[in-house]
Amino acid sequence: MSSAALSKRLLDEYLAVRDSLPAGVVSAERRHEAIRALAARGLPTARDENWRYTNLRPLERARFVPAVSAAAAALPEAAVLPAVLDGFARYVFVDGIFAPQLSSPGEQTGRGLTVRHLRDTAERSTAPSGATTVRPVARALPTAVGSLPEARLALLNEAFATDTAAIHVSGASDAWQRVELIFIAAAGADAGASYPRVHLALDPGARLALVERHLSAAGGAQFVNSAVSVQVGQGAQLNHYRLQKAGVRSTWLDTLSAVLSADARYRLLAVNSGGLSARGTTHVQMAGPGAELTLSVAALGDKQQVQDHFALVEHIAPRARTEQTFRGIASGRARVAFNGKIAVGEAAAGTDSRQSLRGLLAGPEAEIDVRPQLEIYTDEVRCSHGATAGKLDKDMLFYLLSRGLSDEVAQRLLKWAFLEDVVSRIDIPGLRRQIEHDLAGQMADAASLKELL
Amino acid sequence: MSETAKQLESLLARRYKHGFVTDIDADTVPPGLDEDVVRLISRKKGEPSFLTEWRLKALRHWLTLSEPHWSHTTYPPIDYQAISYYSAPKSKTDGPKSLDEVDPKLLETYEKLGVPLHERARLAGVAVDAVFDSVSVATTFKERLIEAGVLFYPFSEAVQKHPELIERYLGSVVPYTDNFFASLNSAVFSDGSFVYVPKGVRCPMELSTYFRINAANTGQFERTLIIADDGAYVSYLEGCTAPMRDENQLHAAVVELVALDDARIKYSTVQNWYPGDAEGRGGIYNFVTKRGECRGRNSHISWTQVETGSAITWKYPSCVLRGDGSSGEFYSVATVNNRQQADTGTKMIHIGRDTHSTIISKGISAGRGQNTYRGLVKILPSAHGARNFTQCDSLLMGGKCGAHTFPYVEVKNPSATVEHEASTSKISEDELFYCLARGISREDAVNLIVSGFCKSVFKELPMEFAVEAQNLLAVSLEGAVG
């Protein structure tokens, strides 16, 4: 389908449902603005340099209108939900709409933490892109969500959004707030799309640990397009764990935009293993001096999967630090790609950035694509990157074989160790165990590996 | 730091040393491009019909293309109809039979550039096929080459003498459909060099050509074709300097290398075209397509480039590693100063089994220069056991310049190994201090550090060129680096 025809269809679908979309989530004006901007720009195509590794064909077939089945019929059994993590308040959204019966907020709304779902709010909300609740950050916001060409799928979310998880942490405190968000895609892609949407704002000095999971109900052929906006206030700390385990035939698209104020610390860790066609877009702006970002991504692709991730980190303010780590394994005929770009502006003197991107090829027809990019406009910097793509280290393999492990087990163990560069950074023991078991389960013949855990 | 900055400033303020214009009549076609112009160029050169047709096909294809703008550069739009596509020195019509017959003003120009054309050429053991504007005027050391069986001609002469080789190899590495600038070149290329090294022959000397741009408003469209037959070896040196000029000049060259079984080609470039003045006015647009194909088993192609000139450099000398066991290398030093822009790098396409490639790129940015490394390493499913190692480092001198690194790594074979590493930083204050503490002047210290930074590339150059490269760096950055 030509891109013009696709834009036309997108517009038609929007016009058909626009009156039924909740104004409390995104106002009609903003929806209109978003769809107009998106239609003008067009949906991404393989000709776009930063989308060349993405499988974009599902976009052509997608039904963009929100899936309406979120009510009772499609609700999955609570059993598909992972075990509750100690001390975490849980909020579950099905097809992008809050599902109170699956949630267990506990006594979370203690000091400083507010979690709201905006669907039933009548008031006009500015979240996520307007971002006015946290003043110091709002001033530092140079661009709006979706203004970046790579972030345009956030506009799609903005136009069709059905609900928003809005989290606000106020007040400086040494105590960590803990929240878990679970997004379940239930309706099949032919019934419509699922639009998870998160707005996250940390006031100066606040601390939040957030676990964000994306799952699919059985069947697993959904179309998900999520948008997350993050503001980390001065000196605030955010540990953000994003686990993508969409269904095996799903399309999962995601856009995360974050702005860091002075001395803010953002640890973002993503484990992407689900979906047939998955694409994550991460855009972080280091807007305050001394901000710190640790971005770690692990991706696992098997069979026909395409796992693509694009991460742009913009250093606007001086003395900020970025550490980017990517570990990807491509098995079967999968393609696993990571495109990490660090841009250092003229005013960002004292920037320190490191990128380590590694891909492992574990299938005869697998593909690894890595692009560690640096764009630097000042000399007072220290930036380095390393990227590798290849097979398992022969010496390590030999070491294990010589100690009596079978070839198969040795290989699995090394693959495991490869991903541990990312997974071991998870400092919530319960979560780390869950993820390790999940990943072990995805690697062929998991039993022996689980024994080793 | 501020003292370093001052020092750099004064160094940067130096002017282009090779700036001069030789005043001779040129046989110039009026500006504009259509089929008639292409036919005219072809007729003037007395080309066989297959070549005329090929040029016309290229033109027709070019007309369907639009100019690409993905490079990390900015420049005002180019009016392709305002360019004159052919210019030959007048004296060519009489045909100089020897050096004595060559226009003395031309020889004077070479003299100023220090081209070793007369005795110096013999002493240096270098055969010079000097291209002045677009037509070659003198070739030396022909006998020795003929003795060895090496064919080394100006392109237009090769078309007359060996049309079968031209027909067979022209466009076989860079087809006329390849890209906008390659299509344009294919339609209007004026002249260039042709080298054929027969089976088992080791070319007895380094081959060298000096490309020069002279007449105003004349785009240069060089075409170079080098073929190394089974087991042959050739080292080709290309050096460029140009007169000072106020208007931008477009240079869209195409270089094709073909290495057959066990053949080795070493292609070295020192590029020092006019970079424009301190405000970025004038200067050459250097949009070049260079590609080598390792067609045969265990063949080898090595690119070495030192890019110090041009307002804009946009080129990616590449290797297509088709033959099993073939290998490619790319060594590059690119410097930008004032408002120069460089978007350069390489492509290594691994197709054959056990193919190896190495990429070493050193970028130096000073003034308001923008330096971009852009490279692709692609391992196709057929390339079992392929290996690549890439290192690209950038050195920043001053807070207003830019250094960018855009590598692509695409691997489709699980037995391949690809490693890429890069770093970007400014000249280390510690290293400077160390030198200064030992009585080395600041300028020498900067030179020393930069030389060290570029060493791994310079050592790949043939000796004569290594000296020239050091000097060029000392001219363009003798300002900025040294």
Q: Radius of gyration of chain B in whole Å, from Cα?
A: 22 Å
Q: Please state the oligomeric state of the protein chains shown.
A: heterodimer
The spatial strand order of the largest sheet of chain A comes to 2-1-5-7-9-11-13-15-17-19
Low-confidence runs of chain B:
90-96, 117-126, 132-138, 211-218
Average pLDDT level of chain A: 86
Largest sheet of chain A: 10 strands, mixed
Beta-strand content of chain B: 25-35%
Summary tags:
heterodimer; A: about 450 residues; alpha/beta; 2 domains; ten-stranded mixed β-sheet; nine-stranded mixed β-sheet; B: about 475 residues; eleven-stranded mixed β-sheet; 12 helices
Briefly summarize what is shown.
The complex is a heterodimer of chains A (453) and B (482). Chain A is of the alpha/beta class and 453 residues long. Chain A has helices at 3-17, 28-41, 57-61, 135-140, 153-160, 394-402, 407-423, 429-442, 446-452, and strands at residues 89-94, 97-98, 113-117, 165-169, 177-185, 197-202, 207-216, 223-232, 237-245, 251-260, 265-272, 277-286, 292-301, 306-315, 321-330, 335-344, 351-361, 367-376, 381-390.
Please outline the helices and strands.
The complex is a heterodimer of chains A (453) and B (482).
Chain A: H1 3-17, H2 28-41, H3 57-61, E1 89-94, E2 97-98, E3 113-117, H4 135-140, H5 153-160, E4 165-169, E5 177-185, E6 197-202, E7 207-216, E8 223-232, E9 237-245, E10 251-260, E11 265-272, E12 277-286, E13 292-301, E14 306-315, E15 321-330, E16 335-344, E17 351-361, E18 367-376, E19 381-390, H6 394-402, H7 407-423, H8 429-442, H9 446-452
Parallel strand pairs in A: 1-5, 4-6, 5-7, 6-8, 7-9, 8-10, 9-11, 10-12, 11-13, 12-14, 13-15, 14-16, 15-17, 16-18, 17-19
Antiparallel strand pairs in A: 1-2, 3-4
Chain B: H1 2-12, E1 26-28, H2 35-44, H3 49-64, E2 87-89, H4 104-113, H5 119-124, E3 126-132, E4 135-139, H6 142-148, E5 151-154, H7 155-161, H8 163-169, H9 180-188, E6 192-197, E7 206-212, E8 223-228, E9 233-241, E10 249-251, E11 254-259, E12 264-272, E13 284-294, E14 300-307, E15 312-315, E16 318-321, E17 327-336, E18 341-350, E19 356-366, E20 370-379, E21 387-397, E22 402-411, E23 417-426, H10 429-437, H11 442-458, H12 463-480
Parallel strand pairs in B: 3-7, 6-8, 7-9, 8-11, 9-12, 10-13, 11-13, 12-14, 13-15, 13-16, 14-17, 15-18, 16-18, 17-19, 18-20, 19-21, 20-22, 21-23
Antiparallel strand pairs in B: 1-2, 3-4, 5-6
